[in-house]
Structures are given as C-alpha cells and as structure tokens.
Fold:
Amino acid sequence: MDVAIIGIGLHRFGRSPGLSGMQQGASAVRNALADAGLSWKDMQFAYGGSQDAGNADALVNELGLTGLQFTNIWNGCATGGSSLHAAYSAIKSGEYDVGVVVGFDKHPRGAFNPKPADWGIDEWYGETGMMLTTQFFALKTQRYMHDHGITEESLIRVSEKAFTNGSLTPTAWRQQALSYEEIANSAMISDPLRKYMFCSPAEGGAALIICNADKAHLYSSKPLYLKTAAVRTRHYGSFEVFAPSQAMNVADASTVTASKAAFEQAGIGPEDIDVMQLQDTDSGTEIIHMAENGFCEHGEQEKLLREGATGINGSMPINTDGGCLANGEPVGASGLRQVYEICVQLRGEGGARQVPNNPKVGYTHVYGAPGLSGVNIITK
Amino acid sequence: MSNQVPIHEGLFTWPSAKPQLLGSRCVNCAETAFPAQPDCRNCGSRETTIVELGDQGILWSWTIQTFMPKAPYKSDETAETFQPYGVGYVEMPGGVRVESRLLPNKPEDLQIGMPMQLDIIPFRTDGTDGSGDQIMTFRFSPVKEA
Structure:
C-alpha cells in the first residue's frame, strides 16, 4: 500500500499570544482538512504530539468527539518524525485509508530545561550545568570544525541563508534578513555558536492529511507521495546529546543510519533529491547534517556554502522556508513543518521562495534528543 | 569545619589525596562507561566492574557556557554573580571520553588536544538543611607546565 499526502496545514510559527498550543494545533488541522477538502469526521485515525502544550488527543475537544483512534507520540524534537512514521505505517499496513498527523507546541521563552531523570541521568549532571542542548551542539560543532576544516565563515553563511529564506516566507517567525556582519558580530552564546546561529523554542502547529495512495485521486487533484519514513535511534559510540560520557570509537550518528535506511527503502540516492529540509537547531548542525544525510563529503560544506549551493537557486536547496533558525522550534510541530514546506515546494506553491525547475523529489530530516533521527522522502 | 560531600556517590574517589574519576568496565566486551553503571551500553551484559579512569586526560572538544542555566542547575550563584564556565569532553586513559566542567572560561585558554588535570572542587554549599556541607564536584583544568 503506497501512502499519499493530500492535505497540508500550518498554524504560523512564532508567538501567538492568547492562543494555547492546542488551539494552534487545532488551527493547523483545520487548515490541512480545508486543503484536502475533507472534514474532521472523515478522519479514521490520528497521531499527534506536543512537549509543553498538553496531550495531543485532547484536540478532539475542539475538533469533535468522533471516536477515532488517536495516539499520542512524544520523541523530543523528533516527535513530528515519529508521528508521521506511525501514520505511514498505519496506511501501509492497510488498516486505515485516511488520517491526520498533527504536532503543536507553546514553549516558555529561553533555552529548554530538561529534567535529568526523564532521560535516565542522575541529578548531578543537571545541577552542575551540563544538561543543555546548546552545549552539545556547540561541542559537536567545535570538534567537527577541527576534524574537517570548517571555519566560522560557514557557520555565518548558514544563518545568513536561513534568515534570507525566512524573509521570503509569510509563515516564518523571523522575517528579517540579517547581514553577514550582523551575524558575525552577534553575541557568543556557546563557543563557536553565536546568538543568530541558534534557533529558539517557539509556538506553532502543523498537520498533514495522509491516505492510501490508491484512493488519493478521490480527494485531491495534486497528491504527493510519502515514499518512505525511517526513524532510527543512536548507536553505541555515536556522539549525541545528554551524554555524560562518550565511547572512544565514534560510530555513525542516528542521522546516518536513518538516512541510509530511507534511501534504501525509496530506491533512490542523495543525487535524486531536488529540495531538502535538514534539522538546523543551529548553523553548525545544518553543516554536519549535510554530510550525515549523504548530500556531500565531510569538509566539502565550506566550498558548497561559499558557492551558495544551499540557497533557493543553488544545486541543493536546504531549508527553503528558513528552517528552525527562522521559524523557531515548537518541538511537537517542527518535524511536520519540514514536511509541509517540502509539499509546498513540490506543488510549486513557494511563491518568492519557490525552488526553480519544478522540483520532483523532496527530503526531510529531523533530529531530537537523545539521539533520534527521522527521515522522509516525498515525491510528486 | 564543614564536611566535604561528593555531589553524587561513585563519580570519583573521595576523600583522597590524589582523586580519580570512577567508571565501569564491561567484563564481556571491555567497553568503559562514565558514570559507572551495572549494565553495558555496548553489549547489554549485566557484568561490569568499577574501575579508576585516571586523573589526567586530553581535551577532545570544548565550549563555554555564557549564560546561567535554568533549573535543574543548582549552584550558589545568582544572575549577578554568575561566571561563565567551560564545558568539554576529556579523553581518559581509562578508555572513555568524560564530559566535565572546565576551569578556563575564555576561548584563548582552551584548545583541542591539550592535556587536562582532574580537580575535585567545592561546587556549592548545601545550606538548606543547616549542615552547611560543601558539595564537591569534578572539573578539569589545563595541566600546569613543570
């Protein structure tokens, strides 16, 4: 059974004062249903997730108590990837024909403050100030720059591209393009990463209506196809977040194994991808994820970024809507926002940020603590 | 004089004239973990033994924490007295890279590959129960040249 995406919906990312996270999730579902020309009572199942804005299945209080199967999913920042994978499997198995995947969140301002016990770690790790995702991404980027000859110039270029793309995206949180100098001179947060190189926790919602591909024509004149959804967790030796120690031998990250699995299942390779979304919690991470997802060699990013390869008109457009850097990260919704944007691009509805030459194959990669990656490949 | 109490039992030898970090080594596959754990993250074996990891290592990566973390961070500092601190992974002769606070808090004082020395330091004073215990944690600083 193949899987189609027939409806996409977003509730604008950023800050929505006066709206709960759940209301933003309901808004995203309504937008996705309207896009598909369906109503809530047509939904046979739902998978949803949120970190700080309540249980996803409570959305039925707003959308209607129709009795559908509604399963809550939570996998850190990769929640959207896991939710979509679950829905993909539900269709693939033949159990259901049509359902919804939804993610939403509303985080307090400032960095996340996870509790060590939730992650199987003793309290001292948090008490002494080492349980911060910002530190991990800085430590990984620092070592990566050392090993692969990446310079600060590349970190700046990733942010510059993100905010340029954000300025072309009506639904983005940050719509102000920033100059190379503004980024280079912004405050150092966690060496080597500066203020404008990190995404921020935010608010928003995203939803997708997916269905059995054989029936997609009943609902949509422009269905897209979810060729594969792969989720993988960390291996012994992979360098991941919230790790009081690391093994001496560095193993492939979960991103590498999820990406390989997705390409294998889809029967295509990185060279076939026309437009992509890679987790950009910070600009160093986007650089690392370019290679971990197989789109270039380690160290090649410096040259690619200087040439503008990852821009909207480049050879490998990454995060055309500004990614997490320009949209912020409402954890439950973020992975689905990536899929939403790829669908916009494949439909040719990107407006000022549309990738040229009629892109046909898109790719999304979401990464979450404590070392979990979800990859989706979407085609026309 | 107040007691010096480790922030968590089993992280390092204490009290000791020459403290060492403690970890666990798998009897089956010989992989090492910090902190010590009863099972092996590599092979799943339930047989591990406590081992000393050493008191010197090599800096593998580093960053600087410039803002005061929210809870669960628990020090004696206030927003006014907070001082940035280094954080890094130190490659230990015992066969594992350990994440640690670092004494230097300026980029020019930190370099991947530099030799580092373990210190056991008072981290905060536990005043809430009236005992006034000094809560001790581990930290690394660059090895001083002889």
